[in-house]
Design brief:
The chain has helices at about 1-15, 145-150, 165-170, 180-195, 215-225, 250-260, 275-285, 290-300, 300-310, 330-335, 335-340, 370-375, 375-390, 400-410, 420-445, 490-495, 505-520, 560, and strands spanning about 20, 20-25, 30, 35, 40-45, 50-60, 90-95, 105, 110-115, 125-130, 155-160, 200-210, 235, 350-355, 450-455, 460-465, 500, 540-545, 550-555. By secondary structure, it is of the alpha/beta class. The protein folds into three domains: about 1-235, 3-Layer(aba) Sandwich (Rossmann fold), CATH 3.40.50; about 250-310, no CATH class; about 350-560, Rossmann fold (3-Layer(aba) Sandwich). An eleven-stranded mixed β-sheet has the order 5-6-9-11-10-12-13-14-15-18-19, sandwiched between helices. It is globular and about 75 Å long. Keywords: Hydrolase. Belongs to the type-B carboxylesterase/lipase family. One of its GO terms (molecular function) is hydrolase activity. Pfam families: COesterase (PF00135). Its EC number is 3.1.1.-.
Amino acid sequence: MDFILLKVFVFTLAACLIIDGVYVAAAPDIQLVSGLARGYDKQASETGKPYSVYYGIPFAEPPVGELRFAPPRPYTSRGAGSVITSNRFRPSCYQFPAPPALMSKDCLHLNIFSPPDASPARLKKVMVWIHGGGFMNGAAEPYIPSRMVTDRDVMIVTIQYRLAAFGFLSSGDDAQSGNMGVKDQLLALRWVKDNIRQFGGFPDDVTIFGESAGSASVSALSLTPRAKGLFTKAILQSGTILSSWAMAYDPKQTFYQYAKKADCLPLIYNPWNTLGYHQSALNCLKAKTAKELVDAHSKYDLEALVFDKGFWEQAAFGLVVDNDFLPRNPAELMKDKSYLQQHGVLERSYLMGITDNESILTVLGVRKESYGNITSASNMAPLIQSIVRGKLSMPVDSDGLNVVDFIYTFPRDSDGRIPLQKFLDLQTDDSFTVPLVLFARALVEAAPATPVYMYLFDSEPKLKDPNGPIRGTNHGMDLLHEFDGIPEESLKFLYFYADRDPVKFPIITNAFRGYVTDFAKTGNPSPGVPNDWPRYDRQREQYLVISSQPEVRERIFAQRVSL
């Protein structure tokens, strides 16, 4: 009787472990130098295929006390037997606006999503995801890559980094050099390099990818001298370090404004000792509670601060030239072939693109009847001047401004207002299209053999209002075709007067996941059929339109880019 029961138990157990013809072992505990990483068995959305996940692995010490606003320090062991992971996503980093989910000072963690058969004997290609959020907000939790892991057989790591003032405050000198958030990312990549093999990931062929501010971070990590050897491929989705919103070229102004609102700006300014002045303000900020620092963000209007310099000219909190992570202005570094060669920038492969109507995001939340308020000629004139100022280092005469004005504001509506799509085109080109093309051109001009692939993403949303003024794929819609954890409220937010097409959506999803994971595994987004997606070069500047019927075209938004 006992033998029969044992046979039934073994048969049942075996049946549970055989899924799609693959034997699946439980997620093993991994003993690291810093402690024990405990994994959990999960199932992919829709398919139920198994995978393993390790939640909340600390890669840095909590940035508290003297480590607040300081470069991250590698996490040290609390004892070999200590379990250092969690059974769920850990809280996000402190940010503004504050999300409804939990936030924590102890937030520098990463998560590993692994195929069930990954092991040191069966290494998988690794992709490290860097979330977006304008350097102001975001977290790892919304991005669940179960289908990429199970269907495409890659290992994916999602990381968290410090945000807003916690990660990107800079006084413009040694008191607070800035870039702490991307230095967190850098330390996470170092952790992956040193530890991922034990989980079954290949440490010598890592792809980093991100969207929006995460994409700008990817390009910054590609350009910094400190990341050489940490990754081999980069995927940029809707953002580069050349995007106007990515860099804070006058961080001292934000530092003063923020310190003042946090009641930390010293009353007496000594022009002969600005370093000491900044250090006093920083010491005060370090003594504040996390809540007080979050609240200080809301005491002044960040957008108004940036409008003082021109909304599209720089970020409030963003990347800075710190003579360390970024030794010089990124545009200068991109033109310096010897620098690019010396620091391995040209040794990597790049996949980069944008959506076909990125700047729909700028009118989210604006009622249709209010569109006219933002498209008047009086509003467009200063916007155009701001954009031209931000892109050119020389004054532009009235004739030059008139050319830009003519291309982007005519023909006008019968009431004299600018067509809304023209308004969106201007911001898309300034913030996304032109920086992308400049980044790609710089790479292939420095080394024509550098593998660069460019795309335009068109998810073909199904319009709720066919007569509405806004069409196309919004900023962030590509995320819905990669990850399966995007909350429903985000779907409604991103789709904005549109729905997902029930027929085209899964076709595009399958294609896009294939492109990014094939690129990570082979360096080519369409391996075996190179003519389907030719490399980007300066002669033809070819790119792929990713849609339900992909096609290769030349010179993305050519007229607008040329202008």
